[in-house]
Amino acid sequence: MTGVRWTIWLPLLLFAGFLVLVVHGLTRPGSTEIESAMIGKPLPRFTLEPAVDDRPGLASSDFAAGTPRLLNIFASWCIPCAIEAPQLETLRREGVAIDGIAIRDKREDLAAFLARNGNPFNRIGRDDVSAVQLALGSAGVPESFVIDGKGVIRYQHIGAIRPEDLPLIREKLREAEK
Amino acid sequence: MRALLVLLALLTALPAASQDSMPPAPYAYRQLDDPAQEAKAQALMETLRCLKCQSQSIADSDAPMAGDMRSQVRQRIAAGEDPEAIRQWLIERYGDYVSYTPRLTGLTWPLFVLPLQLLAVITLIARKRLRKGGGA
Predict the structure, then answer these.
(1) CA proximity to A46, closest of A134, A143, A111
(2) Is the Cβ pair A137, B93 closer than 8 Å?
C-alpha cells in the first residue's frame, strides 16, 4: 500500500461534509427578518403630511431636538400593530416621546384604529407610497426605531413590541441619551 | 362538503385581512411612456428582491410594498437616475440582500475563485492522466 491510497476516502469525506452542511441548514433555518443598514446613520430627510386630524404631520427635522424619540412604523390594517399598542401606551406613560408613520393608510381607518387601540403618538405622518419606509430600510410593519437627540438612528426593533421587549426598548432609549 | 368549502373560503380569505385598501402607487402598475426608460426600469426591477415575499423580484410581486418600490424605481429612472445608483441606494438601506445581482466582496470572493481553482486542478489531473495514457 502506497501513500496514494488514502485519497480514495476523499470523496466520502467530502460527502460527509456536505451532509453536515445540509443537516445544519435544515435544522437551523436562517432568519427571515431584514435588518436595516441605516443604524448609526442620520435619519433620511423627509416631510410627511398629517395622517389624522388631531395630530401634526412628521418631518425628519422633528428629531434633532436633543432627546431620544421612538419612531413607530405602523398601519391600521396591520394586525400585530394592535398587539403592540398597549406596550406603546406603557412607554408613553413613562414619558417616552413616540412619533408614528402610518404606512398606506386611510384617514378614517386610522382614526378608527386609534380610537380602538389608543393614541400614544405626538405626531403621525402619512406615508402613502412607503417612500419614507424605504428610505429608512424598514421592510415591514410594525417596526420601531430609536432615534437619538441628534437625529441619528440608534436601534431598530423588527415586529411588534411585546411586553417582554419593553426592558430592551427602555435600555436602548437610555443608551441613546448618551 | 359544505363545511370543507367554507373552510377553504376562510383559508383563502384570511390574508386579505392584513392588506391595506389604498390604491397602488402611481407607477406600480403603469409603464413609463418612454420604452427605453421602461426597459431600463424593468431590467433593474427584475434584479431587486421583494422584501415582503422574499423569493420574488419586485417585478414579479403583487405585494403593495413591491408596488411602491416599482413606482419609486420607475420615477427615479424617469428623472434620469442611473439604475446602478438606485440599486446602491437600496443596498445602503437593506444590505446586499435586496439585490439579486451578486457582488464581489470580502465575503463572496471564494464563490468566484473556487470554480476557477477547481478547473485548474481538473486540467492538471486530466493532463497527467492523458500523458500517462499516451505513454502506456
Answers:
(1) A134
(2) yes
Report the candidate in A142, A149, A34, A152 with the shortest Cα–Cα distance to residue A88. A142
| Chain B residues with beta carbon closer than 8 angstroms to that of A105 | 20, 22
Lowest mean pLDDT of B28-32, B53-57, B59-63, B72-76, name the range: B53-57
pLDDT band at B7 (very low <50, low <70, confident <90, very high): low
Residues of B in contact with A136 (CB under 8 A): 93
Question: Do B125 and B74 lie in a common domain?
Answer: no
Residue B33 shares a structural domain with residue B80: yes
Whether residue B4 lies inside any domain: the answer is no
Where in the sequence is the domain holding B115, given as residue range(s)?
103-136
Report, as an integer, the average pLDDT of B58-64.
Answer: 93
Q: How many helices (H) and strands (E) does chain A have?
A: 5, 7
Q: Taking CB atoms and an 8 Å limit, are A129 and B25 in contact across chains? A: yes
- Taken in order of first residue, the domains within chain A and their CATH numbers are 47-175 (3.40.30.10)
Q: Which of B22, B52, B65 sits opposite A128 (nearest CB)?
A: B22
Please give the model's pTM, rounded to 2 decimal places.
Answer: 0.82
